[in-house]
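Thread: Newbie trying to understand structure tokens

Hi all, I'm a second-year student working on a class project, and my supervisor (Dr. K.) asked me to get a predicted structure for one chain before our next meeting. I've only ever worked with sequences, so writing a 3D structure as a token string is new to me. If someone could post the tokens and maybe explain what I'm looking at, I'd be very grateful. Here's the chain:
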Amino acid sequence: INAEYGIQQPAMWTNERAKSLTTREFHGHKKKVHSVAWNANGQRLASGSVDKTARIWSLEDHRKGKDTELRGHTDSVDQVCWDPTSPDQLATASADKTVRVWDARSGKCSHNVSTPGENINIAWNPNGKQIVVGSANDAITVIETRKMKKVSERAFPYEVNEFVFDPSGEFLFMGQGGQGAGYVEVLSTTDWSTVRKQVAHTAVSYTHLRAHETPEHLVCRLLLEKKKKKYTNETGVIYTNTRI
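---
Reply by user tm_fold:
Sure, no problem. This is what the structure looks like when written as tokens:
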């Protein structure tokens, strides 16, 4: 994040570190890969594909990645996310209108939850207690993870492009498009009501959200295709507030 906002860039992304990095390719999916995510301890990588499968890659062996294929979805697996509190639980969101939760140790599906539409986004609350999934019909579904049951659904009159929890798990930031502009809407995870809505973009676009927290500010970095004038830098828009 821009140093102007008091957040230092992690050491792992310094120029010296970047020069020492190497790349490896792992093959397994038969069609395009739409999503990848690391688990909580960084030892497994999950991927979701148009081929209707997800895969879990164990990358401890630097010469060859071992993968487990997760079968069960009947349409494209568009997003994957891990339980932040457990390195062994993976959630997948599919266009088949279901969310599946998998045990990474066995490769088996432990829960299958139906949703109102074709799923395109998913996020797991940092406290591990909730999964939020977004559908192509601009609705979000909240799943309580203790019993893996739906506890709330909310439809929006505009497109919901992406969302992310803040690190405390108290708020959900949503990137939206509507009325000729791009917005960030902040929902409380207590009752899923809107606590703030902010114009972040002068035109509708797909929005990528990353949330960071410091003692004084909650910072949400928006990597946008277009930029809003006085908040513009090379990479996008920085939206900050000391109070939600």
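A couple of things are worth pointing out once you decode it. The first strand starts at residue 33 and ends at 38. Confidence is low (pLDDT under 50) at residues 1-10, 212-244. Feel free to ask follow-ups in this thread.
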